[in-house]
Every structure is written in structure tokens, then in C-alpha cells.
Design brief:
Strand content: 5-15%
Number of strands: 4
Largest sheet: 4 strands, mixed
Number of helices: 6
Length: 126
């Protein structure tokens, strides 16, 4: 399964980003907790999806595991070390063709925040 987190596409079908023991620990976490965790992580580092792809991939896995219909998430933080309440989260279910095309662009180094916004989020549209 491909998952778009901000402007990076992660392949969640590769080796599990969490150990079996961690997966069991995470079973009890609900979607609301994962959402709060994502806001806290991106409040600390708005570019976490680029600076810490391992952590970002684990977050993507948690989101997809708690809400299997979701394959894209955006956590928009105004600045580093901001209040997590200021992080704007968005989620959506993209068609397979769209997520595969975004994945191809990402592998070629052609997917950035502007391209992802135009294709999915439309935040910059005026």
C-alpha cells in the first residue's frame, strides 16, 4: 500500500516499519491518539517527513492501520516547535492511479509540497 504523507509517498508493503512487539503495543491506540501524535510530531518538526523518514513512515503505518480507507495525510504546521493545536491535519482516500502516479513522481524527485498540494490538498488555491 502506498501512503502520501505531506509530500512523500511511502510504500507500507515493504518490511513492516514496526516490530511485532511494537505492533502489539500499538493495537490499543485509537485514531484520535494517532492524530494527536501526528500533530505533536509535526509541531516539533514540520519537515519530519523529510528529516526523519523512518518516524514518518511509522506514523503513516499507524494512520493506515487505524483507518484503512485513508492513504494520504497532511500535517501542516506553521513553524517548528509550535503548539500542536496549530497543526492542521487533513486526510483523504486517493484513487490507486493517483497515488501510484504521485509515487512515481516522488521516486523521480519531482514531488514537492507545491505538486502534492495541486494534486491532492488544494490549500494554495486562491
Amino acid at each position: 500500500m502506498l501512503f502520501l504523507l505531506n509530500d512523500v509517498v511511502f510504500d507500507l508493503d515493504e518490511a513492516s516499519p514496526v516490530s511485532a512487539a511494537d505492533a502489539r503495543r500499538f493495537e490499543r491506540l485509537g485514531f484520535d491518539y494517532v492524530l494527536e501524535l501526528g500533530c505533536e510530531l509535526f509541531a516539533e518538526d514540520p519537515m519530519m517527513h523529510r528529516t526523519d523518514p523512518g518516524r514518518a513512515r511509522r506514523l503513516a503505518w499507524l494512520i493506515a492501520d487505524r483507518s484503512p480507507e485513508v492513504n494520504a495525510a497532511l500535517f501542516a504546521a506553521p513553524e517548528a516547535n509550535c503548539n500542536p493545536d496549530l497543526v492542521e491535519p487533513r486526510f483523504c482516500a486517493l484513487p490507486d492511479t493517483v497515488i501510484r502516479q504521485l509515487g512515481q513522481h516522488d521516486r523521480k524527485g519531482k514531488l514537492d509540497a507545491v505538486a502534492a498540494d495541486r494534486a491532492v490538498w488544494n490549500r494554495m488555491a486562491a
